[in-house]
Specification:
Largest sheet: 4 strands, mixed
Helix content: 25-40%
Oligomer: single chain
Low-confidence stretches: 1-26
Number of domains: 1
CATH class: Alpha Beta
């Protein structure tokens, strides 16, 4: 046990630092946000910095029929970001080789075509051999019994509550601005 030194009325005494340990425990990172990844800029992104926010994690691709979903994702991020909502884009090339670009090319594409401002991670594997730890967690039936299972295509969306629970999974062809998705985001933001 650690101790703290307190001086009261000229007397010095050692007291247990129990409050410091309890406070540390209160900030325990939910497993879904306990990952460190690389951003498109090559810098480390510690997902724990999104603790307490409503998070939507989306595997993205630049050459997919669903690629226009970048626009509503950015609109949602712009609209609800001030309320604690964040979108995290995760480029992947497993489906039809529709994300062949380098991180720099992906960043340029997102900026030039959709003015993306939400966090974008470096390209990773989201299904099959070499799957990254984040997606292994998101898709595992052990850690996510309610909506686990392999990613089916680009732009599959996971909604994470403020307390770090995976509360919804939306199919790739369901646009982020559809009522079902927006209602899910708004419901979680009110909690």
């Amino acid at each position: 046990m650690r101790t703290l030194c307190c001086a009261v009325l000229g007397l010095t005494m050692l007291v247990p630092a129990v409050w410091a340990e309890e406070k540390k425990e209160d900030k325990k990172v939910p497993p879904v946000l306990n990952f460190k990844m690389k951003g498109l800029d090559g810098k480390e992104v510690d997902l724990s910095k999104f603790q307490g926010k409503v998070v939507m994690i989306v595997n993205v691709a630049s050459e997919c029929g669903n690629t226009p979903q970048y626009a509503p994702l950015q609109k949602l991020y712009a609209k609800y970001g001030k309320d604690g909502f964040v979108v995290i884009g995760v480029p992947a090339n497993e489906f039809g080789k529709q994300e062949p670009g380098t991180d720099a090319e992906i960043a340029k594409f997102c900026e030039d075509n959709y003015k993306v401002r939400f966090p974008m991670l470096s390209k990773v594997v989201v299904k099959g051999k070499g799957i990254c730890p984040l997606y292994k967690y998101l898709t595992s039936k052990d850690t996510n019994p309610k909506s686990g299972g392999d990613i089916t295509w680009n732009f599959e969306k996971f909604l994470i509550s403020r307390n770090g629970e995976i509360v919804a999974r939306f199919k790739p062809d369901l646009s982020p601005d559809e009522a079902e998705v927006v209602k899910g985001i708004e419901t979680e933001l009110k909690k």
